[in-house]
Write a structure and sequence with these properties.
The protein has eleven helices and 15 strands. It is of the alpha+beta class. The strands form three sheets. Strands 1, 2, 3, 4, 5, 6, 7 and 15 form an eight-stranded mixed sheet that branches. Strands 10-9-8-11-12 form a five-stranded mixed sheet, sandwiched between helices.
Length: about 400
């Protein structure tokens, strides 16, 4: 399995200038590739091949007065920018044909120099390396200081340098993991658990454990409101407005980093302690269109389930997602009688059939565990067929280096 390990970079003034130059050149090449394809489409001509685009937009462009400055950055950065444009068109056409999973994608758009997030990618043939003193040596940029929060488990195959909206720099390494080492790190266990995600409590487990919701965004709202108010009073285009925008971005980044760290620690704990996990397949996009939108986004349910999915695949665990229309809050976990829908303000109820008094969330967690086929009957046999190992479709990521993974 391939994962991403991200570490904070601290480039000096000259290296920041070189990185800005590389970001700009990569953006220009990407935009030139999109423009070339759009011109061909309007003219009714077939799209140029990758080789034609590379020769015209990089090799020949470097010899012209208008694009001679492309030679000031690594050629690998420019080639990877073209690959990104090709991938964007591939995904767009696959989305049009219906062969790509997920929401519909639009056609690639031009990148703006005002975008707050910039990135460039170096592959192995760029001859980047990590020096003996622990610096990241990048071609035509130099040896950049890195804050190593942990050791890389293997030799990385590529590195992406990212500048986020808060003005921070990160190096994101693609690393392959060793299944044998992962098995030793997290041995098998016989525990299973069902998880009910919510807003009053972030999660309620089938064993009765309740995890409070940290509400990172809600806690930072006072500071965010002040920073946003100061930003709105600055003149557009001024340096003071740019400084105020950074303050807002840093406040949001701080809340996002804290949330990500919490989700990583909690998901890793669940994976370590349980061999199989049952969770609801919630419609986060639908809930985000209700009056609870801010609280739903603040909880980070989708990010949490994605973390469980790739960690389960990595460590040989089982993750089962049950349907979102399963009546987990309406069914008695003791006698299995459906007692009907209940408003959200009812947190406890008594089953009319067997008289069992239930905590709403704990009862739902027990029903999720049963619906996922993880609960055992009196004779010890599974209530439902065995769970299916989780499938991981995208490369997992390890994020901001504060003891957690990878904005």
């Amino acid at each position: 399995m391939q994962l991403r390990y991200s570490f904070r970079l601290y480039p000096d003034a000259g290296q920041r200038t070189a990185l800005a130059r590389a970001f700009g050149c990569a953006r220009v090449v990407f935009n030139d590739a999109v423009r070339a394809r759009e011109d061909a489409r309007r003219a009714g001509q077939p799209f140029p091949t990758a080789g034609e685009v590379s020769r015209k937009l990089i090799t020949e462009a470097k010899r012209t007065a208008e694009r001679c400055w492309l030679g000031e950055v690594s050629a690998v950065v420019l080639q990877q920018s073209l690959r990104d444009a090709e991938a964007a068109y591939r995904n767009f056409f696959a989305s049009l044909k219906g062969t790509r999973k997920g929401p519909r994608l639009g056609a690639p758009r031009f990148k703006s120099r005002k975008d707050t997030r910039q990135s460039i990618r170096f592959t192995a043939n760029a001859r980047w390396n990590i020096t003996g003193s622990g610096r990241l040596n990048l071609p035509k940029i130099g040896a950049v200081r890195v804050k190593w929060s942990r050791t890389l488990p293997a030799v990385p195959t590529s590195v992406t340098v990212i500048k986020d909206s808060a003005g921070r720099y990160f190096a994101s390494f693609v690393v392959g993991t060793d299944p044998a080492e992962d098995a030793v790190r997290m041995p098998d266990t016989d525990q299973t658990v069902g998880i009910d995600l919510g807003l009053m409590h972030f999660a309620v487990l089938s064993d009765g454990t309740k995890i409070d919701s940290p509400r990172f965004l809600r806690r930072a709202e006072k500071k965010l409101k002040k920073a946003q108010r100061e930003l709105s009073r600055k003149q557009k285009g001024s340096k003071n407005r740019a400084k105020a925008r950074l303050k807002v971005a840093r406040a949001h980044a701080k809340a996002a980093d804290a949330r990500r760290d919490f989700l990583h620690q909690f998901s890793t704990r669940l994976i370590r302690e349980n061999q199989a996990i049952g969770v609801e397949d919630l419609s986060v996009a639908g809930l985000a269109r209700t009056r609870l939108a801010k609280s739903v986004h603040d909880a980070g349910w989708a990010q949490f389930v994605n973390m469980l999915a790739y960690k389960a695949a990595r460590y040989g665990r089982t993750l089962v997602k049950i349907g979102r229309f399963e009546p987990t809050s309406q069914t008695c976990s003791t006698c299995r009688v459906k007692d009907g829908p209940k408003p959200l303000n009812i947190r406890e109820w008594t089953c009319t059939a067997c008289g069992t008094h239930h905590d709403r969330d704990h009862n739902a967690a027990l029903n999720i565990k049963t619906a996922a086929g993880l609960a055992a009957s009196a004779c010890g046999a599974p209530v439902r067929p065995g769970a299916i190992p989780a499938q991981r479709e995208e490369t997992g990521s390890h994020g901001f280096p504060t003891g957690n993974r990878a904005a």
